[in-house]
Structure formats: structure tokens, C-alpha cells
Task: structure prediction
Amino acid sequence: MKSDELFALLRRRGYLWPSAEIYGGAQGLYDYGPLGHALKRRLEEAWSAWFVGLSDDYHEIEPADILPEAVVRASGHLENFTDPEVTCDSCLTAFRADTILEKVRPEGVDGLTFEAIGGLLREHRIACPRCGKPTLSVPRPFNLMFGVDLGVTGKERGYLAPETAQASYLAFSRMYEVGRKAMPLGIAVVGRAYRNEIAPRQVLFRMRAFTQAELQIFFDPASFAPPLEAVASERLPILGVAAREAGAETPEWVTASALVSERGLPAFYVFHLAHTFRFYRDVLGYPAESIRLFEKSATERAFYNRIQFDVEVHLESLGGYKELGALHYRGDYDLTRHAEGSGKDLQVLVAPDRRIVPHVLELTFGVDRNLWALADTGLTTEGERTLWRLSRCLAPWSVAVFPLLKKEHRERALEVVARLRDAGIRATYDAAGSIGKRYARMDEVGTPYCVTVDGETLDPANANFGTVTLRERDSRAQERVAIEALVGQLGGRFAPPRPPASYDAGPSAA
Ligand code: GAP
Result:
């Protein structure tokens, strides 16, 4: 489906729409309606179960999302969190340099200096995309953070958090005490990030306010050894730097163990890369062949990273592979910078005679981008039927209950809804339109099961007395199930998967 069509469908169904729509919308800002909100919640819950569930020493916190200026100065965001902006001297419109260079340089401008970007603009004689005049300025750094004045005097400067990660670094020393000095220690945040994107576009892909789910694992590099054997034979779709330099665009399938033994990646990194791949394939349900793990070179990756693989999924609506998340090995960059900035010693004792600044492995996940990507890859048309093949744990509603006849079967159907809800199953009631229309509505929003109460359910003389029809979404298979047995049969099918017990990262050897 094209991007416009997909957005129109999601808007029509009440998943999302532009913020302040009645005023013409606000660029880069979106509101989620009931279904979008529910799907987003499920995604966050699934992420948390899979990643925070890796260890009892990994915890989720809920920090403030305004950062004092000293924090973003120490983190490097004040200086480095910029995009190259060019302005047209004639019509005064501002553009992102990589956006206007897209046709001649589709790979983007990551790693290029501002001079080099300016050179490309001149070399290709790029004119203003709006007014067509050759009056574009030289590229200038544009800081993406939103500054805010705190308090009445406005002298105290704050910034809306550009990433949730910083809050975890700020919380490290407190959490280290609260967590009884466990190492590795995980701190997760699912929260808002704000970026004043120069050119918000592609709906949920370049937003100005969006949700990130990020886990920061603090560890001692000398002893961090999650069980690589649990994922060693997993084949991963790798697009490495060397392959890219040789012109490859499609990934090659490499086992996790070969990434360590042949490509020299650290075992702790590869373990989490495989765990992340399994999340996208097995929990979120993206087709394995649509995923690639894209290695960033030293000049392309973010300034704080030593190793970076982006998780990309091929999206028809956006015409190619798009980044949905990433794994960043940030070394001791963050805690070192915050120790300098705050004057607080952030070293920890890992052995009687060894104090270290912990290293950080960051697992980052864009919640909004994944919501869009799930719609792109999951919504399919089969003849007249539109079907969203959503993983069971992600569906906004797990079960829809219908009375075959609106009046006669209503009471019993509502009882079934209550029974399912009492068992913690997300059930909804729908009596509007024909049964066929109701099935179609539920297929389109990805509801895995529909239950119908009919005349046989209520007729003591009928062999099907006390039973309902249970219909499965993908196969459309139907069976009669006793109402008494419904919870037993369905319960437990909707919980987000957790990592196998063998994954526990456990305390480090130190
Ligand atoms: N803490 C690391 C960090 O923030 P990032 O690559 O800038 O790294 C992480 O962002 C993830 O956040 C991305 O992979 C993407 O999924 C999501 N993301 C980043 N910018 C976004 C934007 N403007 N709109 C929507 N999602 C965005």
C-alpha cells in the first residue's frame, strides 16, 4: 500500500490523525485514537517483556522529560545534536540538506562535513525545491532540541529530552544503590523524545514528538558474558560495512557464532543482536526476509557509538528499508561525560581492587515507527477481505463477541464479554451490522478471535446449548466451544512472549 493510502486507512479507522487537525494539523505531531493507543500500549508491553525481562536486575523507570542545560551540555547534545540546514535566500524556506540531496545521494549525508555537503550542493547545481531559484545558502548546523524556559524569570534553561537514554544515565548512581549494586544493571525508559525536525515527513518516521523504548545495560566489559550459546546458531541478516562498500544492498545470512569468531564482534553485542532480531521476527511478526541488520561505519554512526547496527525493515509504503531501532555500544562515553559535568564520581567497584566507569549497551526501539511498519507489513487484501495479521499479543482487542441477533442474544453475549474480561482477556462487544460485516471489521483491525452467541447457545434442547462459535482470524476456521471452556482455551494466548529462562544475563563474575 502507498503511504497516503495507508495513512488514510489508519485515519479512517481512528488509529491516528494529525494533531490540531481542525486547525489544519501541526507538522510532525500526531494524535493516536483508541485503536492506535491500544496498539501502541501493546507494543510497549511486548518490548518491555522481551527486553526488560532479560534479567531481574533490569528495571523500568519513569523519569522527567525536561533536562537541565548542564545535562545536554555534558552529553554533547548542545554541541553535536544537529542536522545540516540550508535556507533559500529568495523564498526563505529551510530544508534539510540530505532531503534535498536525496535524488543525487540516496544514502544520506551521515559522516560528511558541512563543507562536503555544501560542495555536493554546488557540484549538482541544486536549486531551491520550493521556488526553483539557485539561491540556497551554505549548510549550517541546526540544533534539533526544543529549549524551554523554566520558572518565572526564565533564567533557568531546560530542554525537552531529545532521547530517553539521558534519563537512564542520570539515574544510574541512584539505581545502582537501589538495585543493591548489581552489575550488569539495566535501566529502561519508555517515554517521549522531542526533536525539532527541520523537515518532518513520512508520517510516523520523522516526528517532532515521538515515543522511544530504550534499555541501557551498564556493565563491566571484562566480565559481561550473556549466554551466546543460546543464540549461537541463529542466522542473522547482516549488511556489513565491507559488503556495502562492495556495492551490496541485500543482507547475507550469518550465524551469531560466526559474527563473533570470524568478524570479531564482541559476544555480548552479538547475543543482544540475535535477541533483538528474534524480537522483530518472532514477537512482532515481521517476515524474516524483510529485515536487515545494517552496520554503520565509524563516520556514519552517532558520535557516542563504538559499534552500531540499525534494525531495518523493508516497507512498501516508504519504498525501501527503514530504520526502526538499533543497538548501540556506547562504551563509557555517557557516564564519563556526566561524571565530568556533574562532578560526581560514577565509578563502581567491580572487584576488591578494580573501580571502573561502567560501559553501556543501548537497545533502542522507535515505538511509532514500528506501529507504522506493522501496518505496512501486516495489512493485506485477500479478495474482498482486508486482514491485519497482527501478532496475538499486539492486537488492540483479543476477542470480539457478537450476538447473532441484536436483541435476543445480547444478554448472553454481554455475559461472555464480562467472563472474558474477568479473566484478563481484552474483549469487545459488537452488535452493529451483519455478522459478515462484523467479521470484516475485526479482520481489518487484527482481532485474532471472534465469538458468536446464537440461538443454539440459548436452546436447552439443542446439542450446542451453552456453546458459542469461535472463529480464528487468519484461517477463518470455526468451532463450537462451551462458554465454560472459553477462558481455559483462550487464556494465556495473548501474553507477550518473554525470553527463555536460559537468557538471564545474571550478575557478572566480578
Ligand atoms: N538513544 C539513541 C537514539 O535516540 P536515534 O537513532 O536517534 O538514537 C532511536 O533514535 C530510534 O528512535 C530510531 O531508531 C527511531 O526508531 C526512533 N526515532 C528517531 N527519530 C525519530 C523521529 N523523528 N520520529 C520518529 N521516530 C524517531
Q: What stands out?
A: The longest helix spans residues 34-51. The mean pLDDT is 94.
